[in-house]
Automatic annotation (TrEMBL):
Residues 338-365 are annotated as: Disordered. This is Alkaline phosphatase D. Transmembrane segments: none annotated. Residues 1-331 form the PhoD-like phosphatase metallophosphatase domain.
Length: 365
């Protein structure tokens, strides 16, 4: 990445991982950092500071920070996997010694937010020790592009169903009428900015995939990832309808989280083949984290059968997305490395997708 002439880097969350390192992890735990190897979960301010410092020892990451400004938001792993507002991870529920009350988790989250703020270049006001930090914000690049960076962790309601890994029946997400990923205040802020936007391209930079995703047996096609927008279907439908009604031109949604690349058409109604395409979504893969090998054939078989709006999926290689935007088109290149384990692994372009200004939907470039 550092070898390119980039204007900026968008980082959409999961800059660190908060659990115990695995033996196969690229970044190995340093016992001298002060965090116990069997801690299971970072909790103190020192814990989170040490983990950020460990990641910052990566020479290639340092090179990217030297070369480019970063526009960053967090996701869950900066604090705890799949947390929602002050609700601790549901996967902690079977372990009484790990699951925390909202009051207990507020302390851990405050420590996580402070360490993230200390290590992340961001123009934000923060009182050390505060349990909250507003990171949603808007950046304009002339009249070419308006970038809305969102926070879908701090203000969200809990994932429906409390299933392990938040994988569960899509019916729960469809019935989640009161559910929200953004909270009402942030949603209103976003829509106000879209209605008033002078930009040709209007971008939502956020954490989790917005497109619907249904899966083959096993699991059945009625099952999805309820930590994503599939768990909050009514808000997704309301938001996409409002985006269309706002008059904002050429909306593009960016996401990360799931260690794989996706290119999808975002539709008002995913169940209606005739429903119009509102926006294009690009989901960026991970830098070093793998996509579960056992799920690859499931997803690769499910997309053509159940998810025709998904134009492209790749969970087999990892890297980053390079985006080139002008007044006629948005070009996204998938850059993949041959191996995540070798600092010298060669990189190549493995896919190219384009959105023409004025015509929603991605096509191969």
């Amino acid at each position: 990445m550092a070898e390119f002439d980039l204007d900026l880097v968008l980082h959409l969350g999961d800059y660190i991982y908060e659990g115990d390192p695995r033996t196969e992890a690229v970044r190995q735990h340093n016992p001298s950092s002060g965090t116990a190897v069997d801690a299971g979960q970072l909790s103190t301010l020192a814990d989170f500071r040490n983990r950020h410092a460990l990641y910052r020892t990566d020479g290639q990451l340092q090179a990217a920070h030297r070369a480019f400004p970063f526009v960053a938001i967090w996701d869950d792993h900066e604090a705890e996997d799949n947390y929602a507002d002050l609700d601790d991870s549901q996967d902690d529920l079977p372990y009484a010694q790990r699951h925390q009350t909202r009051q207990e988790f507020a302390v851990q989250r405050a420590n996580a937010y402070q360490a993230w703020y200390e290590h992340t270049p961001i123009r934000a006001s923060y009182l050390p020790g505060s349990p909250g930090l507003r990171i949603y914000r808007r950046l304009d690049f002339g009249t070419l592009l308006r970038l809305n960076m969102l926070d879908t962790r701090q203000y969200r309601t809990n994932q429906p169903g409390d299933a392990p890994g938040d994988l569960g029946p899509l019916a729960l997400g469809a019935a989640n009428a009161a559910g929200t990923l953004t909270g009402p205040e942030q949603e209103s802020w976003l829509l106000d900015g879209l209605r008033a936007s002078p930009a040709l391209w209007n971008v939502l930079g956020q954490q989790v995939m917005m497109a619907a995703a249904r899966f083959l047996n096993p699991p059945p096609a009625s099952v999805g990832n309820l930590d994503q927008w599939d768990g909050y279907s009514p808000q997704r439908a309301r938001l996409l309808s409002a985006v269309r009604a706002s008059g904002a031109t050429n909306p593009v949604v960016l996401a990360g989280d799931i260690h794989s690349t996706w290119v999808s058409d975002l539709k008002l109604n995913f169940d209606d083949p005739a429903s119009p395409v509102v926006a294009t979504e690009f989901v960026s893969t991970s830098i070093t984290s793998d996509f579960p090998a056992e799920l690859l054939p499931v997803v690769e078989g499910s997309n053509p059968a159940f998810n025709p709006w998904v134009r492209y999926f790749n969970g087999r290689t990892h890297g980053w997305l390079r985006m080139d935007v002008d007044r006629s088109r948005w070009l996204t290149e998938e850059r993949s490395v041959a191996s995540v384990d070798s600092p010298d692994a060669p990189a190549s372009t493995t896919a190219r997708w384009e959105v023409e200004a004025g015509r929603p939907g991605a096509v191969p470039a």
